[in-house]
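Usage

Read records sequentially. Each one opens with the input sequence:
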Amino acid sequence: MSEAGLKSSRFRKEREKSWRQLERIVKKIESGSTRSISDEEMIALPGLYRSALSSLSVARATSLDQSVVQYLESLSTRAYFILYGTRTSLAKRIGGFFVRDWPNAAQALWKETTASFLIISVFTVISYILVMANMDWFYSLSPGAMSDFRNPTASTETLRDSLFDGSSDDGLSAFSAFLMSHNSKVAIMAFALGFAFCLPTAFFMAFTGCMIGSFVALFADRGLGVEAAGWLSIHGTTEIFAIVLAGAAGFHIGLSLAFPKNKPRLESASAAGRQGAVLMAGVVVMLIVAGLLEGFARQLVKSTSLRFTIGGGMLFLWCLYLYLPRGRFNLRPKS
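and closes with the structure output:
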């Protein structure tokens, strides 16, 4: 046997007893047989875990047999989760997300959310003014698929029927499906590309504003602006709010890279990504709700005032749910 083999064998012989003891305790806990664990074993568990970590450190430093290193890595990881991991049920984790994690994530990123909302608002106004001044701007500020369904060449009656007449549901449903698909992609891309120092995220927020402004302006030019806004609000308040939050998550990642404070950039971005992911999980929920509102409420409600009531009510409920003060869970990394 080589000298390295002798060293590895001697090292294992001297310490294997404590490893096996730790492994037996870990297996009992993992299998749910906690009642069979004695008080002595529970008291010994932290010490055995530290001993395994010490052995792993020595094994790595002295380049011992890789099988020993891998065994100790696995054993130490399992013991770590036994000692320090959160052992909660799936139902509790889901409940914790809705009760605490998602609202606190939204509250923690309120500055980014405000910036995202302001960009959409400014470009909505700019787009509206441009299209009202010259309808040719509509084709530049709206994607092709949107222009195919409703554009300046459509008659006023066609536009009115698209908002209220059930006979136009097929075309309007296609348009709504396009909006839902497009806005879902915008939300995902705004978050995913936030790492590029916020620039793509800002672009997607601006583009969303252009879509909203040009859409309302098209109908407003025919005296149907209020009706179009009501049609859009019934599901749009939820859907656009989701995009705003997705933009906030993207901005948070970009800002963490641009201004990492006292942390390395990658570490700062990683922490921001985890925070943003919590908010994005909530965005997915909001987009699902928006899809349900678009699929059912829009089909059934024809009154403009009632559409505004539903849309405004949903916005109020989202704000109340997300920003109502509650027990804080600080999602921001410490500087």
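Summary fields computed downstream for this record:
- The CA atoms of residues 255 and 272 lie 9 Å apart.
- Confidence is low (pLDDT under 50) at residues 328-335.
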